[in-house]
Amino acid sequence: MKRQNLFTLAAFFSVLAFTVSAEEIGEVSTVFKLLGANHKIIVEGFDDPDVPGVACHISRAKTGGMKGAVGLAEDPSEASIACRQIGPIDTSKLAKLKNGDVVFKENLSLVFKTLQVVRFYDKKRNVLVYLAYSDKVIEGSPKNSISSVPVMKWD
């Protein structure tokens, strides 16, 4: 019974590990809508939960109109990402990172579409690589964007 409880706790915390919430930095309106919110591009920022010292910013389209105002609109599958080293990185922890870990996830529709950011560590080049992509349960999406963060000594 204890083993099952530990598994449940581990599953719960693994879900929390990739539900990092982004902070909205700003937005610009792109299309005026007479009824409901305008279509816009929003810029959000978040810190890598497993690598303190790295921050990422994502820009993405947000659908407006009446459906967008009540949260029923499906946002486009387009996003851009930029990540930078903003502080010291504990390099001893980098080897323990698992390639493809989800570090950020956000719903783009009510149920079926998400925007995800996954991290890879290129040990040969000593670089963290962040891949932003959207996926749909039914068909997926090839639209993606990457950003590389060279791990440098921080003085």
UniProtKB/TrEMBL annotation:
**Does the keyword Signal feature in the UniProt annotation?**
yes
Q: Which InterPro entries match?
A: Uncharacterised_CreA
UniProt keyword annotations, A-Z: Signal
The answer to whether the entry has keyword Metal-binding is no
Q: Which residues form a coiled coil?
A: none
- Signal peptide range equals 1-22
Q: A Pfam family for this UniProt protein?
A: CreA
Highest taxon above the source species: Bacteria
UniProt-recorded name of the protein: Protein CreA
